[in-house]
Amino acid sequence: MKTKVLIVDDSALIRSVMKEIINSQPDMEVVGQAPDPIIARDLIKQTNPDVLTLDVEMPKMDGLDFLEKLMRLRPMPVVMVSSLTERGSEITLRALELGAVDFVTKPKMSIQSGMLEYTELITDKIRAASRARIKARQVAPADAQKGPGAVLPQVRNPLTSSEKLIIIGASTGGTEAIKEFLMQMPSDCPGILITQHMPAGFTKSFAQRLDNLCKIGVKESEGGERILPGHAYLAPGHSHLQLVRSGANYMTQLDQGPPVNRHRPSVDVLFNSAAIHAGKNAVGVILTGMGKDGAQGMLEMKKAGAYNFAQDEASCVVFGMPREAIAVGAAHEVGALQELPGMVMNHLATNSSRALRV
Questions:
Q1: What keywords are assigned to this protein (predicted)?
Q2: Does residue 332 carry a catalytic annotation?
Q3: Of 34, 62, 130, 264, which sits 20 to 30 A from 313 (CA to CA)?
Q4: Has 315 been annotated as catalytic?
């Protein structure tokens, strides 16, 4: 049975190209097109689509207002179609908070040729969205400031070694999962490295948003940073993030090598570097995402002595990457997203207590 897609975009050209891309796939079809949210509202009732693609900025009704009403009244998988601008990235990140599954950036080149080159990316995201678990979300205010975090409980940091590191990988649905995880981290938690599948131009805004919400400091990695407790370093959208060692210090390193598992940044690249340079000092966490990126790297971490956690199916938007990691035996424990921060910190506490007794 084909996935039914409704396209909402004020550009007739974009609608035409998207329709061509989607209808070229044997497992999906366009059931309607709308130039604005008002027409889209009626088409949703008429066509009952499985997935909606939604332009970020549109006339007659703000895209975010429409998305907020849609997710409240008729929750469904939504893929945002975004322009790669500072304003566009802020709106897109807010759309993900409101419940959009993922987003595609409009190419800067010739729209028609550019969008056709994006065929695989667009159709992969629609397929992932069609399998996504759509549930009501508690949305933090857009202007939330750094603080103790009223939305989520805080995890107390036990006495842990400064040698310890937390290594996180995520993809589809990961922006919200990472936010929920980091908001529970205490200000003196171990240093954290994160790879989230996200294009360049969005990772800096994402890191800044997290930095405003969390007790810990969060930044887009520039490469060459000393990894400090109470800080998280996010892979930039243009490079793989790697962990390296320089004397007694852990450092970040960026690599613009070819994509791995079709991704740059790749979770496997980060996890493999943690296996090599951190070994038993690393704790791996794999969160929601489509595909298998990170599964083999997490297995290498386990072989090197790391202790690993995977998000469970019920709390994932897309249970792809965690499922693959569990299937290859890379995860020691599986837990719901809300529970994972506490599970990680409790493991570190237990590990530290054993080390002190020895």
A1: Chemotaxis, Cytoplasm, Hydrolase, Phosphoprotein
A2: no
A3: 264
A4: no
